[in-house]
Specification:
Layout (H helix, E strand, L loop, with lengths): L1 H9 L10 H13 L8 E2 L1 H8 L3 H13 L3 E4 L3 E4 L4 H20 L9 H15 L3 H17 L4 H20 L3 H20 L3 H26 L8
Helix pairs in contact: 1-3, 2-4, 2-8, 5-7, 5-8, 5-10, 6-7, 6-9, 7-8, 7-9, 9-10
Length: 234
């Protein structure tokens, strides 16, 4: 915990002069997504509040916001913990992803599309793979899908999927072999990008739908090997 708090203290400057619960929640959301606070971690009000230099009330409001986003859970007489997903949670995350991401591609309209950010995310993943940093490959993969969603040009959709992708990271933290999970999708992201570059929107949607179905199967398989279906990971 000391190492995590040290890194969190570095984020204090991000709060600026107008510290708010929303900014605190942004910082904690990012830290949870990056794995600084893995699923099941108890979050200490005193330690985190001290590291960020914020009041207990501000921190509690930030916790409330992240609980609403399903990233944290409050357990009576025990405190606040980073949420541990169930099999049903993972299935619901992917159901949402399929509904939204495929709809975004389907609604793109006539090419050309603004694909610079998608191209950068593919390059980011390939670079991380060459370095053997499979956690960073997972991050690049999420960046790819976040940028794919952003092609819709909808702030509301971006906001919705920000929470969904943050939850997805909780699932990734449970995976014991990140290389086996993430490596196949480097090529598949390139295929989706290639279809969009060629203006083949229907093919991109087909590739994406198969991609998401396969990814769901892989992640759920990990969960089902570690716990019985419907039970929380401990």
């Amino acid at each position: 915990m000391a190492e995590q708090l040290s890194g969190l203290a570095d984020d204090r400057a991000l709060l600026g002069r107008t510290s708010t619960a929303e900014r605190v929640s942004d910082i904690l959301r990012s830290r949870i997504a990056e794995g600084y606070f893995p699923p099941g971690t108890r979050l200490s009000e005193d330690s985190i509040g001290g590291a960020l230099g914020v009041s207990r009330n501000t921190l509690r409001e930030a916790f409330r916001l992240l609980t609403h986003e399903r990233l944290l859970v409050h357990e009576l007489n025990r405190g606040v913990f980073v949420r541990v997903l169930t099999v049903e949670d993972v299935e619901d995350i992917y159901r949402t992803r399929s509904l939204v991401e495929c709809a975004v591609v389907r609604g793109l309209g006539a090419p050309p599309y603004g694909l610079e950010a998608l191209t950068a995310a593919v390059a980011e993943g390939l670079r991380a793979a060459r370095e053997g940093d499979w956690k960073a490959v997972g991050t690049a993969n999420i960046h790819f899908h976040r940028e794919l969603v952003s092609l819709a040009g909808s702030a509301r959709t971006d906001e919705l999927m920000r929470s969904v992708f943050a939850e997805l990271r909780l699932a990734f933290h449970i995976v014991d072999d990140p290389k086996a999970l993430h490596e196949p999708y480097l090529a598949r992201n390139r295929q989706i990008l290639g279809a969009l570059e060629a203006g083949e929107r229907a093919e991109a949607e087909r590739l994406l739908a198969v991609y998401l179905a396969d990814s769901l199967e892989r992640v759920v398989d990990v969960y089902r090997r570690r716990v019985g279906e419907g039970e929380a990971l401990l």
